[in-house]
Write a structure and sequence with these properties.
The protein is an alpha/beta fold. The protein contains 14 helices and 13 strands. The protein binds pyridoxal-5'-phosphate and (2S)-2-hydroxy-3-(4-hydroxyphenyl)propanoic acid. Its cofactor is pyridoxal 5'-phosphate.
Length: 396
């Protein structure tokens, strides 16, 4: 049965983790996978999460099946976060939201539904994008192509190229857009550029799928969510996937969501019924723990305030690491102006280093980033940054 089964390639990012774990170098630093570590190099367990879990422990509950679309209080909290609790879409009931297995799960439920709805549509992702975007939409049955995004020469976004591509795209094409903190480049488009993207999406009748995996890591929760408000104001219907993996440091609990903005409550009810079929035939219903933690935090004012503070601290620490990286690379003798690192946003920096340089960093110094030159700034800290800067200076 399995004699013809080929060995599949490793995930380019998660595969690096395995290589890192096996590396005996005592100085090794993992800047490969997108995970936030604190200044001691530890994965944080947020205080708001611990407080919610304490509450849950003190009033233990039996574990029946959840509804197919998850915890109602979780879904409504997600709607509030993404669209605004008092926003017209939420108040009118025209958002269909389901609790998903991480942001990936939200993307996949949305992709499966879209494939049934628009089987002939193509999917466009940014060039480059999170590699799993291509894999996930391909696996869902779509042909995946790209729109221009990164411009290496200007160290920024090739916005003219992006817009021209969208304007030349056939109606009904699904366009995956990073809502904020673009992975892997760290370059976001400006609010004015978003307006132009939205105009193109509207004119060409494209289907926007916003991936919001880093809400709160850019400028703040509301600030990063503002782009959603722009799509709403334009009168569009669209998809939004949410991930709490990073913002709650709950990677392994698999907490995320999919929200679909429809034209009316009646339409949202029908869409929700279809999303439920996707869920039921895949994993039936989501798990309880992570969703309860997030719902408890988001729906308890003191815990919500604590979360916003802790998320703000993570955001600030990453920004400080960007500033320190620029200064220390200069001090380590790098002649090139690395100031672009502080104009990037979110957890990643596209460093501009070549594949050869990234391989040298890994093999000679135990500093792990992806072959594309992406480094996770959120894994730098006051103890490893000098070593990393010295290593980068040597390969440059
Ligand atoms: N989308 C992007 C752009 C990401 O970087 C990630 C990271 O993991 C995800 C989606 C998936 O999120 P999750 O880990 O919650 O599945
Ligand atoms: O881009 C990253 O590093 C994160 C984590 O298949 C990740 O988004 C990477 C690869 C993958 C799943 C998650």
């Amino acid at each position: 049965l399995f004699t013809a089964v080929e060995m599949a390639p490793r995930d380019p990012i998660l595969g690096l983790n395995e290589q890192f774990a096996a590396d005996p170098n005592p100085h090794k630093v993992n800047l490969g996978v997108g995970v936030y570590y604190d200044d001691n190099g530890k994965l944080p367990l947020l205080e708001c999460v611990q407080a919610a879990e304490k509450q849950m422990m003190e009033a233990p509950k039996a574990r029946g099946y959840l509804p197919i679309d998850g915890i109602a209080a979780y879904d409504s909290a997600v709607k509030g976060l993404v669209f605004g609790a008092d926003s017209e879409p939420v108040k009118s009931g025209r958002v269909a939201t389901i609790q998903a297995l991480g942001g990936t799960g939200g993307l996949k439920v949305g992709a499966d539904f879209l494939r049934k709805l628009k089987p002939a549509a193509k999917v466009l992702i940014s060039d480059p994008s999170w590699e799993n975007h291509r894999a996930l939409f391909t696996q869902a049955g779509f042909t995946v192509e790209t729109y221009p995004y990164y411009d290496a020469a200007s160290r920024g976004v090739n916005f003219d190229g992006m817009l021209a591509a969208l304007q030349a795209t056939p109606a009904g094409t699904v366009v995956v857009l990073h809502a904020c903190c673009h992975n892997p480049t760290g370059y976001d488009i400006t609010p004015e550029q978003w307006d132009q993207v939205i105009a193109a999406v509207k004119a060409r009748e494209l289907v926007p799928f916003l991936d919001m995996a880093y809400q709160g890591f850019g400028q703040g929760i509301a600030e990063d969510g503002a782009v959603i408000g722009k799509f709403v104001a334009a009168g569009l219907t669209f998809f939004v996937s949410t991930s709490f993996s990073k913002s709650f440091s709950l990677y392994g609990e698999r907490v995320g969501a999919l929200s679909v903005l429809c034209d009316s409550k009646e339409e949202a009810d029908r869409v929700l019924s279809q999303l439920k079929i996707m869920i039921r035939t895949n994993y039936s219903n989501p798990p309880i723990h992570g969703g309860t933690v997030v719902a408890t935090v988001l729906n308890t004012p003191e815990l919500r305030a604590l979360w916003e503070k802790e998320l703000g601290d993570m955001r600030l620490r990453i920004k400080q690491m960007r500033i320190a990286l620029v200064e220390k690379l200069k001090a380590a003798g790098v002649k090139e102006d690395m100031g672009f690192i502080t104009t990037q946003i979110g957890m990643f920096s596209y460093s501009g280093l070549t594949k050869d340089q990234m391989v040298r960093l890994r093999n000679e110094f135990g500093v792990y980033g992806t072959d594309t030159g992406r480094m996770c700034v959120a894994a730098l800290n006051s103890k490893n940054i000098d070593y990393v800067c010295a290593a980068i200076a040597k390969v440059l």
